[in-house]
Structures are given as C-alpha cells and as structure tokens.
Amino acid sequence: MSYAGLVRPVIDRVHMGVRALALPRLLPLYDRWGRDPGFETSLYAGLLARPMGAAAFAAASVYARKPIAPEIADTDADGTRALTPLGREVALAVQEVVGAAAEELWSVGVPPNRVSVERLCELTGRLLEAGAATGGPAFGAMSPPYEPEGAGAALVLTSRLSALRHHRGDAHRAAWAAEGLSVEEVRELTGGPLWERIEADTNRRDEPVYAVLSEAERWEFASGLGSLPDGLRG
C-alpha cells in the first residue's frame, strides 16, 4: 500500500472524531441564528481566507448533502461565493467550536512520548505548501486555511487537516472521472475491481504531496495523528 493510502484513514479518523464532538455544540448556535447547519461547517477555514470560485466550490461540494444558504455566502455572476457578514460570524464560530472540541479531546490521556500537536501543525503546514504544486481546485480554495492570530495548535491543526483532506478529495474526483463515472455511480460502488482501481489511482495522485517529508517524518506524522484521541472508540 502507498503511504497516501495508509495515512488516509488516520487523517479521516482524527477529522471525524473532532467533528462528532463539535456538532452537538454547534447546533445551539445555529438555533440562535435561526437556521440549520450548511456546507460552511466543512468549508469554513477556506471561506474565511478567501472567496471560493465556482469550479472550486463545485469540486469541494460534489458529495455535499447540504447547500450553503444565500444568507451565509453571496454568489456573484461568475458563481464565486463569498461570506456575508452573517456568514463570517457563523464560520468564525464554527472554527472556534471545532478548535475547542479538539483541544478538549486531545488533552485527555496524553502519553508522554506522543508527537506534539504543535509538531503535527508544522508537518501539516509543510504538506499544504507542497500541495500547491499538486492539488486540484478544491485544495487550492481551501489552502492555506484561515488561522486567527494567536490561535491555539488544536484549532490550527483541525483547519490544516481539513484543507489537506481536499488534496485527496481532488485526487479521488480525478480518478473516478478518468473512469467515466458520475458522482451518483461512484456513490453506488461498494467494492470490486473498479473501486480498487479508483482507489489505487487516487493514491497515486495523492502521493506526491507527501514527498516533501522525509521517510522518518512521514512515519512521525502518521503515528502522531494515530496517537491522538478521537472519541470514536470506547
């Protein structure tokens, strides 16, 4: 298995664990704003940094079940989306809640030899810089993510990992498009030779981003993320 294929589930586990803890804390905020969570809960760190062009939004949202409400993001004639004042308030609150959830989650049961969150921020930052040469439209819109001045390492790492996941997302979309599939057809795949071929092609397209790290750093990154509590396992 390629390194990209090996580290993907580790990144996803950390990402999903933090989101699972943060979501119940976001719902009261959305009730206060009188609306339901939209796709901004996934794109907040990119939208806070810059407007998102139509092609980038289409790539990032191809699997999305929930749209972004017009009250959250304006859409211009070219299809570019930019946060409204309310949208910026919402996105900042989402980032803060996600960061706080990660800080709480990762401060529990810390082994003394665990790779620090600060070090993981550094390694992920280098991956994002390298991804500028290999990432697709969604990654380009999400990286570098917005990082508030003085932000803690947990908030920074959650935002950077979210951006990094879009490097693989772009790779995956390119892989199934190369097979002539639609997103509906991809959703129906549950295994088999075609799925395995798409996964292998996705790994191949995603792999170059990790070349910026030495072999020792790649294993430091994977093991460091793997040691973070995720809240998903008892």
Helix share, percent: 55-70%
Evaluate the radius of gyration.
18 Å
- Stretches where pLDDT is under 50 for at least 5 consecutive residues are none
Please state the structural category: mainly alpha
Total helical segments: 10
**Count of discrete domains:** 1
Provide the residue-averaged pLDDT.
93
Strand order of the largest sheet: 1-2
Order of helices and strands: HHHEEHHHHHHH
Largest sheet: 2 strands, antiparallel
Shape estimate: globular
Cα distance, first to last residue? 28 Å
- DSSP E strands, number: 2
Beta strand %: under 5%
Protein name: SalK
Organism: Streptomonospora nanhaiensis
Report on this model:
- α5 crosses α10.
- It is built from ten helices and two strands.
- The chain is globular and about 45 Å long.
- It has a two-stranded antiparallel ribbon with strand order 1-2.
- β1 and β2 (81-83) form a beta hairpin.
- It has helices at 3-33, 40-47, 54-60, 85-106, 117-131, 137-142, 153-178, 183-188, 193-206, 215-226, and strands spanning 73-75, 81-83.
- The model has no long low-confidence stretch (mean pLDDT 93).
- This is SalK.
Core attributes:
234 residues; mainly alpha; two-stranded antiparallel sheet; globular; SalK
In short, what is this structure?
The protein has one domain (3-226).
Compile the SSE list and pairings:
Layout: H1 3-33, H2 40-47, H3 54-60, E1 73-75, E2 81-83, H4 85-106, H5 117-131, H6 137-142, H7 153-178, H8 183-188, H9 193-206, H10 215-226
Antiparallel strand pairs: 1-2
Helix pairs in contact: 1-4, 1-7, 1-10, 2-4, 2-7, 4-7, 5-7, 5-10, 7-9
